[in-house]
């Protein structure tokens, strides 16, 4: 945070360099999530919403991520909010790994005219924080980008639903609506080699949905992707670490006692695998009619569908992650 003396210096610089004055910059905020600290700073500019609303927005996102992964993924994260004059909404979020050894860094734009409803329906802050709970994949950045964007796309709505910030209908409605964008098109060479927007975000999300369903099928619904993700984080696999993709997936598989992640990766990395989405929704008991979601609780995987969005504490699993959280890393 700025000391009392620095703003005077900045004001002096502002007189020489241009219109950005220190008094236009909102004060920094610190948000605590369990043992973790999220440091929020602002670029120069104004936002109409009061600070408590902004704090609650960021805190809710952090709580959703902590609920899904068992704890906030890193001890210290930084968020730079960039007010955008005359605009509304949240946009242009980007998260970097271990910037200057001080933990991950998220930069995100917040329109000056953003209202409370925009914040209540925002997904982007949670999406960026989900990135913090997955290792930086080593090797060619482009090749494995889909696995990082896919996990954030798939997990973000589920994490928000698990803390009651998003309706379960919205989770399944959006998946049924948008997942077709992730299917391979002509000339597709598998997820590692096809870098279109659709395959990166929704093709990646489809990989993780299939993984979640298959883990639950193979473990009689006792474990799911959430166990794999908590296992990766418990093994130290946050965005602060660089891991090869195989190590990430094998660590996740170990947590569920299966080989689902590695098997699925080997199938989908270099081959355009067709997925019958209609059949998948039918087995999960999800029907989308004219934009309205309906469920069939007699569908063969109806229990799997319900388990995916259930909060960890209500899932019947042991509270291992809570116990582990009492012994944070160094
Ligand atoms: Zn992302």
Structure description:
The protein has two domains: 26-131, Neutral Protease Domain 2 (Neutral Protease, domain 2); 145-324, no CATH class. It is 45% helix and 14% strand. The chain has helices at 6-17, 51-69, 116-120, 124-131, 145-162, 168-178, 197-218, 225-234, 245-256, 260-268, 277-284, 302-309, 320-325, and strands spanning 29-33, 36-42, 76-84, 90-96, 105-111, 136-137, 242-243, 286-289, 292-295. The longest helix has 22 residues, at 197-218. Residues 1-22 and 321-330 have low confidence and may be disordered. The structure holds zinc ion.
Model regions low in confidence, pLDDT < 50 over at least 5 residues: 1-22, 321-330
Structural class computed from helices and strand pairing: alpha/beta
Calculate Rg over CA atoms. Answer: 21 Å
Percentage of residues in helical conformation: 40-55%
Q: What can be said about the biggest beta sheet?
A: 5 strands, mixed
Main sheet strand line-up: 1-2-3-5-4
């Amino acid at each position: 945070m700025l000391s009392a003396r620095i703003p005077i210096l900045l004001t002096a610089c502002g007189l020489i360099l241009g219109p950005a004055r220190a008094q236009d910059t909102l004060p920094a905020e610190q948000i605590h999530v369990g043992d973790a600290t999220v440091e929020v700073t602002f670029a120069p500019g104004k936002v109409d919403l009061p600070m408590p609303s902004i704090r609650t927005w960021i805190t809710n996102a952090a709580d959703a991520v902590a609920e899904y992964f068992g704890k906030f993924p890193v001890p210290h994260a930084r968020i730079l909010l960039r007010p955008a004059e005359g605009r509304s909404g949240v946009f242009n979020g980007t998260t970097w790994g271990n910037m200057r050894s001080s933990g991950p860094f998220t930069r995100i734009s917040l329109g000056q005219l953003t209202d409370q409803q925009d914040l209540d329906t925002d997904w982007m802050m949670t999406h960026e924080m989900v990135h913090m709970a997955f290792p930086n994949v080593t090797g060619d950045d482009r090749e494995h980008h889909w696995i990082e964007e896919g996990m954030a796309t798939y997990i973000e709505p589920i994490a928000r639903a698990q803390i009651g910030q998003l309706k379960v209908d919205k989770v399944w409605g959006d998946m049924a609506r948008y997942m077709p964008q992730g299917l391979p098109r002509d000339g597709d060479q598998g997820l590692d080699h096809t870098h279109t927007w659709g395959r990166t975000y929704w093709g990646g999300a489809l990989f993780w949905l299939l993984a979640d369903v298959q883990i639950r099928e193979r473990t009689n619904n006792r474990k799911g992707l959430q166990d794999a993700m908590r296992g990766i984080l418990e093994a130290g696999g946050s965005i602060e670490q660089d891991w090869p993709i195989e190590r990430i997936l094998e660590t996740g598989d170990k947590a569920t006692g299966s080989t689902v992640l590695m098997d699925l990766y080997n199938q989908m990395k270099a081959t355009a695998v067709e997925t019958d989405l209609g059949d998948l929704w039918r087995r999960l008991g999800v029907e989308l009619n004219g934009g309205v979601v309906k469920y069939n609780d007699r569908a063969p995987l109806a229990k799997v569908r319900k388990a995916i969005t259930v909060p960890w504490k209500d899932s019947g699993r042991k509270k291992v992650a809570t116990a582990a959280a009492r012994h944070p890393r160094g």
